[in-house]
Amino acid sequence: MTPDAADAADAADTATLTPEEKSRRAASFGGIASAYERYRPGPPMAAVDWILSDGARTVVDLGAGTGALTRLLVGRVPDVVAVEPDDLMRDVLSEVVPAARAVAGRGESMPLPDASVDAVFASTSWHWMDLVPTLIEVARVLVPGGVLGVLWSEPDPKAPFMAQAQAAMSAFGMSDEAGEGAAVLANAINDPAAGHQVLEIPHGVPFDQPETTEFKWEQALTADDLLGLLGTFSWVITMDDDAQRGLYEMARALLHQEGIDGDVAIDVGYRAVVWKARRHS
């Protein structure tokens, strides 16, 4: 299986998840909440600035996780509400971003009054939500003219590190099992559950059609950082122990082959795919 085929398989797998499997994966993050806080990247402040107009008083971080985006909003906006369904994730968020109001809730049901917030953000969480009910709920809590911002942050598949990783995978072994594993690993640090990173506005919901842009940056990561990041994706978290162990062993061997060991770090290019849509006035 080639890396392109692995991408297609990931997208197809995501598109065909049963509701039960989607719920199981969505609920898997609490068990690794501390690792999620340590290894998952948040978006750059420039992405927040692109979405958020000056003068906003209250904003929501929806599906806030452990607060990678929340911490950027605190200080930028007087009142930040972090809505997160997972108790363990929310506990970490409350500890690391105490200035935010962390509340239990989800995209389809937020414990907030009508027309009470200026912006709703969803950072690498939108794909876990039921689209139309969530858009209707977001519209309910937004003031007229308020904005919905949806972001996905990930290693950039077109950056040099990913090209280097894919070349290493191809050279690592070409048996059916090794070749398939290598192809999957080549794309593993781009979350397959995110699927197509698009904010869609169906007919009948009170939002303008969205605008989109992209931001890029670099971050130096060690082998432990890369393996830690790999372990924050739902498809890895929910693997059985033997399969997960095998994936980590292969990943570490490939990184060692590329000279990425111990304190050695490599610059990994990141991107944030960013969308915004305004609620009808």
Task: Considering the chains and any ligands shown, give keywords for the structure.
281 residues, globular, alpha/beta, single chain, 12 helices, seven-stranded mixed sheet
The average pLDDT score comes to: 83
* Quaternary organisation of the protein chains: single chain
**Total number of strands:** 7
Strand fraction: 15-25%
Principal-axis shape equals: globular
Count of helices? Answer: 12
Which stretches are low in confidence, meaning pLDDT under 50 for 5 or more residues running?
1-14, 173-186
Please give the share of residues in helix: 40-55%
The profile of the biggest β sheet is: 7 strands, mixed
Helix and strand string, N-terminal first?
Answer: HHHHEHEHEEHEHHEHHHE
Cross-sheet strand order for the largest sheet: 3-2-1-4-5-7-6
**Rg estimate, integer Å:** 19 Å
For the terminal residues, how far apart are their CA atoms? 49 Å
Structural class: alpha/beta
